[in-house]
Amino acid sequence: MAISALSGDTIEKRGLVGMDDYLRTLPGVSMQDRGAGQNSIVIRGIAANPQVETQAVGVYFGETPITGLGSNSSSGSSGNGDIKLVDIERIEVLRGPQGTLYGSGSMGGTVRVLPNKPNLEEIEGSVASRFSQTAEKGGDNTMLQGVLNIPLIEDTLAIRAVAYQFDNSGYIENVGSTYAPLVGAIAAGGGVDDRGDVGADKYTGLRLTTLWQPTDELSVTLGYIQQEIEQEGLPEVNLTLGDFEQARLGVGSDGSRSEFIGNDVDITNLIFEYDLGWGSVMSTSSWIDYDSLNNVDFTELLSLFGLSAPMDIRGTEDTEKFIEELRLTSQLDGSVQFLLGFYYEDEDYASAGPIMWSGVPTFSAFDTLQFVTRSTTQKALFGELSYQMTDELTATLGARYFEYDQDSLTEGSGALIGAPVFDPKENSDNGDNFKASLTYTPNEDILIYGQWAEGFRLGEPKKTTPVTCDVDQDGNIDALGVPSRATSPDELESFELGIKTAFADNRIRLNAAIYRINWEGIPVSIATPSPCAVAFLFNAGKSKSEGIELELQAHVTESFRLDVSAAYGEATLTEDVPNVTGFGSAGDSLPGSSDYNISLAAEYSFSFAGFDSFVRGDYSYVGRFYNNFTESGLASGDYGQLNLKLGTSFDQIDVDLFVNNVTNEDEFTWIESGLGGFGFSRAYRLRPRTMGLNLAYKF
User: Hey, what CATH topology would domain 147-396 get?
Assistant: First the structure.
């Protein structure tokens, strides 16, 4: 399959910290970063509205899926648990559907972050710090991290601890006091704090991993992850203001606090592995607890309806999830190998999004309360069977059967809702996914493969139609002419041909792939105008995605390495959607990713006063893309970013200097599409030029 892998050495030398640092540089991958834990990943163009939809790319940290941990109920944004890249063995990005092995939500592909395991043989560790400054309206940024590995019983029991804290300055300035749409709300008692450093965040994390290996056959790994994020202000800009300016009122009961986002994730993972000789058995159990609290100024949206009211959304989210996966993998001597697995997931989710008066004096006439609870249970059986027909030719078949049940309850009351809402819903479905591939290896330096694979994503219960959306009570949503309905699992099938080659004693590697993806039942959120002002979800379309991807890795000399990757792809609708407005027409491009991206990296190693040193440059270009099907309004992308780094190792001490975004590009990385459907003019820009110093001591 098409895989991009980043080693631990590459992660360190490039200074990678989070998803935003590397995903945009990989062929066929797009990334929209909207602040603390709010990010969307698009691979091979598989997205209809990446900001608000359930993501079509699976994200794993170790053996634990963390897809969706990071959403923001206040702004309707999706996200992922962006656990910081400290003490990481490698990152794997699997492009193309991974439905048989990784299941729901991996239609576009899967991102796997694999941390270092405890070392059973020796004490080791590191201490590192970073200081940097961001240009324009930015400020100082700091990082501290430590790693300690201790074998408690040599070759049998070890513990590995990781701790870190990242403090990043904001680079947005709030100028809300002079913003015309907010003047009336300020006069009505809304607070405003014109200040800089908006979007500043702090990531604090801890990882503890214990490995027990009492025999050569049995190993038990117990891991715990805790990460807390605090972000003051949202790193958004208003399109009608200066490049790094926004306009917001204060939030809270008296409007005295700036907007904020905070989330906390706790993950416990228990892994049993046993070597049977002819195969191996693995059990991985994960307990996840995710909590989020955020306040977002809602005043500008209300001004579009003629209301001068200082209001904010005080969103909370709580997700508790248990996941169990069992896998039996063969290690047979013959030409047949197999994998069998069982997957179980039980999730309880609750959110509250009250819209409250944030002015002084307190005035509750507009206060609106909304609560959502949802439980989801999913089960799946999956497997793969491979048969080596000849020394050069191997065939593989894969399958997954899944079923799920959902129960949800939406409750709401208040001026902006109208009549009280009590809306219990149920939804259940099942299905299957298949995969078939053929690989041909004429020699040890060439692998040619062809693969057909399917992917899927769970559906959602239907949303009750409020009276304001169906005034004539004919069962249809007045603005759309169709009834609300539950969404079924959307599905896609992919056809891919690829080649992986090595030349010059493995000093040069070239990988290439071409693909065609057909996607059906696309779930699309369609916002309706006032007085309804509700977004409904539909299975409403078909699309195709076609493209080519290239990766070249060349050790030109022992000292000089060159990496080049590029992708070109077009993802478009293949049919009109009858009776549904605002979706798009056949031939329109899917939003959220550019047609092409390019990445270049050059690294030169040398000796400085007898010490190992290196200089490295990374350049990536992201093409233009839009947040809607018709490509109306402003575009995101169309920028190149250059990062430079110079480092030296003085025995156990590493020192390096870096400059990110050398040319100080300030283009848009994403323009709002969620609440933006109601007329918001908000967007996100590249972080300005950032220069800094890293220091690390390893033992």
Answer: Maltoporin; Chain A (2.40.170)
